[in-house]
Each structure stands twice: as structure tokens, then as C-alpha cells.
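Field: COMPLEX_INPUT
Field: COMPONENT_COUNT = two
Field: RESIDUE_TOTAL = 654
Field: MODE = joint
Values follow.
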Amino acid sequence: MALMVSIALLAATAGHAQLAVRHAAVLPLTTKSPEARRLAEEAMMLDLDQVEQAKAIEMLRKTVKIDPDFAMAHEFLTQISLDPAEQVSEQQKAFATRNHASAGERLAIEWYQDAMDHKLISAIVKMNDLLSRYPHDKWVVWMTTWWLTTQTQYERSIEVYERSGIPDSPGLMNNMGYSYAYLRQFDKAFAQMDKYVAALPQDANPQDSYAEILRMAGRFQESIEHYRASLAIDPEFYSSQFGIADTYSLMGDQTQARKEYEAGFRKFSLPELHKILWQTREATTYVREGDYQEADRAFHAIVEYTHSKNMSQVEADTYRQMAMYQQKAKHGLALLKKADAALHEGKNAMQAAIRQESAQILRARVEIALKGRNKKTVGSSLAKLAELSQSSDDKVIDSAYHGAGGAVAFSDGKYNEAIAHLEEDENNPLSLELLAAAYQNSGDRAQAQHTAETLANFNDPSLEQALVVPTFRTCYQDPSCSGSIKSGEKQQQRRRSHPLLM
Amino acid sequence: MGFRRWLLILVWVAGMSWTAQGKQLAVIADTANPTTNLTTAELVKIVNARTQTWPDGRAIKLIVRDPSCADMQLVVHRLLAMTPEQAQAFVQAHRGAIVLAGSDDAVVKFVSTNRGAIGIVDLYSLTKDVKVLKIDGKLPVEQGYVLRGNSQ
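Field: COMPLEX_OUTPUT
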């Protein structure tokens, strides 16, 4: 940002009118304190281009102390904070102080507020309005491409980046690498990563990102090599340590995975959310091994911790994840009751996050009640989920509704109806597995094959992946088991690979 | 970056990474157009070039992306009920009534500057210069909206 402002000033002074016009379109950062502006700009450079998130957060905290009316600094802090309570309070402050800011900054703050309030159309309109005013501004391009990524609008995110004409931002190269990877265009993703590594050869994050994308592509050994290269550059770059652990877990070596997680916990002092994230991943290693007793023990420890920290939504989500792998439906449903109770407390959670979690819990309840053949609970939970979905325009909630609706339709043998629902939740392994089967049973061989291939190559270290993909992949790779899956031929309505999943 | 994504998953609920990728298309008109809602049947007639004027008598100018592009498959299948090849031929045969644009931005620009224009764009292309028409009383973000989901 500072660089762009300097360039703009220099160009204007030199009389290069055209260049000045282009670079003049920089989002102003309104503050009465030059020191606060300098800190905010530096913090965002640190966060975007060097992925020094913790340092950037500290700088922004200082910034808003210097100038509490610096609305955009509050907004930046909302977006990069690792503390849910801070995210809530900073967004409130950004919104409350927006009248101290320029029209462009107000637009950015209101766009994010609308997104949080589930006013999607209004959020999109504001985003595009801001982008049309500042199409070459690094922060606007960053906010836009990032938000579009969270909305799974990867193609549009790439389009915004390419139009921005910003060729030299390592942070944006990184983001675009991920966007291509999510589109499973790995050649383009690796090309971006090569550029990113070349731009910052002495930084750890390019190697870390390269590793993650290699893992998404299923190239596990190369992934671990890049994670180790990252740690060789910066031994404190903890996400690479946990990346190694996650990768071993995906490779099926849970003992080694746990060793790597534990090494990470011993060595690094982590922000709360990161700590919980990787504790959850470690707990999931037991699910991958089928050791549900140990999994319960590990997940319970996380529940107690999140409860003690008043992190209601994270606590609720931990209960939800526990419920998902339970062998008996009644145990799963009991855990979901606890999830509801935790969520009801609503401590340190944004309203949007509470509604999304509520939808996820309802979806889990539908899946588990289906397993227990509890039609009444299936019906009532699906109805509540439909109502929640109707009253919001939130993609997470919609996906939860369609995932649940698809599971119910599938269990009733209504394959076309199931397909219509499940296609709206096609990044979730639970839905993908049913979708492949629904395509098969409806006679759509090409789509069945494509979906099965996508699922067999799904490498995300999540609980949902753990519940579905390893078993599915084993079958997919065994000709005696996968004949009908690979050819897309019609098969009998089959039960899913995990006991919970019908 | 590698870990900021996971931050979002935890903060916004474990599920952010599983959000759907189904298409959502918006039907747009110029901001001065008094129409706020169309039925699917009315929209089909407009897209088929059977209806060529608005209720106030103003001429309808339909602008869409090329029927062969991925974004248009929902329109081709759900409104025209044609194959992409048939849709291509149909558009060629109705050059006067249907304008083709190279991008969503071009559709939005045309609609915003031409009274009576109507266009179909990706939801994420919307700007303040156009209005979104409801279809059967529903906005593109609502369940049951006709131009939402997969192309089939």
C-alpha cells in the first residue's frame, strides 16, 4: 500500500498524467494519526505478502489504540484476528466508526457487514461498487479475491486478480494458487506457486503453500518435502509442522501423524483457534483408525477446553463432530443436544456463525436420525433446516440443508431429487458419496464416474474426509469392489462405507 | 495463507470449505423499469423472443452471454429446454431480438444504459446500476429459485 501511494505521488509529480490516474485510485485509509496509518499499512503488508499473521494482528491492535476512530483498521483486524471475541467487537467498532472514514472505506465496511448479516445481494453490489472504484488497489483486490474465495467463487476471484494488473504481490500469487487448486487446475496452481517461491525464496510460506497444494493433488511425499523446506527456512513456521502431521494422517500413518502433532504442541505457543484446530485433527487420527474410545477422550478434552475459554460455537462444533462418528445413533443424538446447549450460550460468537453452526447441527441430526430410522426426528430436523435456509441467503446454511435433503431423498430411493439437492453440496465428502451412488442409480454413468473420481482424490484433513474417503478410495482402487463405481453402472442401493452414514 | 483458510472454518463454522459451487444467475433490468417480478413462464417467453414488449409498451432488449459458455447452461436447459447447439442456432435466428455479450460486465453495462433491457448474469456480477428481478417471487439467493443450481 505504502509503495502504491508513493508511486502515485511520484507519477503525479513527474506529470505522467495517465499513470497518475491509474495509480490515484488507491483506497484512502482515513485516520487522524500518520503513525496509525503507517502501522496499518505495514500490518497489512505483513499479513498479505509475508503471512506474518500474528505480528500483523499485534500491529493492528496498536493501530486502533492510537486511533480508536480508524474504521478501516478495525475492519482489517476483524478480518485477520484469530480471536472470535475480537472479531465480533472489532466488526462492531468498524461499523460504528465508519462515518469517520471515506466513502470507499465505508463501502468496504458495509459490504462485510452485509455479508455477516446474510444480505448477500447487497454485499455483492457493494463489493463490485468498491472494485469498480479501485480495481488496481492492492487491498481492495485482496479483500475481493479473498471474500470471493470464501464464497467458492474461484473463477471470479482469478478474474478480479488478472484484471487488477498487480503482477508483483506475492500474497495475491499465493491466493490465486489456492484458487486454481480449488478448481483442481493443478498445473496452473503449481505455476503460481513457482512464481511465489521465486518471489520470496527466503520465506517459509511459499514452501508451506506449495506443500498444501501438492497434498490437495495427492502428492503426499513431495508435500512433506516442501513442508520440511519451509521449516528449514523458518523453524518457527508452525503451520508447516502441523502440515506434516496432517499429511501423514491423510497418508494413513496415524502414529507418525500424532508424533508430529505432539511435537508441534510441545514446540510452539499457538493462537487459540489454531491450537483447537490441530487438536481436533489429532483427535480425528483416532477416528481414522476406528479407535472411537480414544477419539472420544481426545474430543472431550477439546470440549472442556473450549468451554473453559467461553468459545461457544467452537465447543458446539466439537460436539457436532463427535456426534458424526458415533457408532450408535442415540449417542450421536445425545451429543447433538449438548452441541445445541453450548451454542445456545452464544459466547464470543458472531450471530452469523451461530446460525451456520445451528444448520450444521441440524444436518448432523438428520444424518444420524436416518441411521437410527428415527423418521420423526429426520422430518422435524429437516423442516427446521429448510426454514433456516429459507430465511437466510447463507451458503453454509444452504449447503447444510441440501446435504440433509439429499440424504433423506436418497434413503427414500428418490435419486433424481437426491441429485438436485446433493449437487448443491458437492464439496462435502458425505454428499459426494451419495451423489455418486445417486447418479449411478439414475443411470448417469458419466457423472457417476466423475463424482467417484473426485471423491477418491479428495485430500482434505477433515473429519468428513476421514469418515468417507479412505474406505471409498480402497474400494475405488480395488477392481473387484469398484467395478460398478468406475463404470458408473447401476447398482443396488448401497449402504455408505461408514456405519453412521446409512 | 495455508492456515488462514482453516481459521475461517473454525470461526465461520466447520463447513465454510464445503460451501456449494452451484451456479446462481440473476435476471436484471434497468433501474427505471417498474417490473419487479416475473413468473418463470413469462421469463421463458422473453428468452424465447415470444414476448417482445414490457407491459408499458416499451420494447424488450434481451442480452445474454453466448449459449455455449458454461454460465449459460442453466438458461439453455431450464428456460430454453434446448441443447447448446439448438440454443446457438436459435440465437443466430433471432439476432435482432437477442444481443450476445462477451462478458457479464458487458451485460450489466448494456442493461444499465438501455431502457427496456433485460439480461442474465452470474449473481456475483451484480452492481448498483441494475435491478434484480424476482422470478416467481424469489430472489436468486432463495430456495426454489429457477436459475440456481446445476445445469441439468
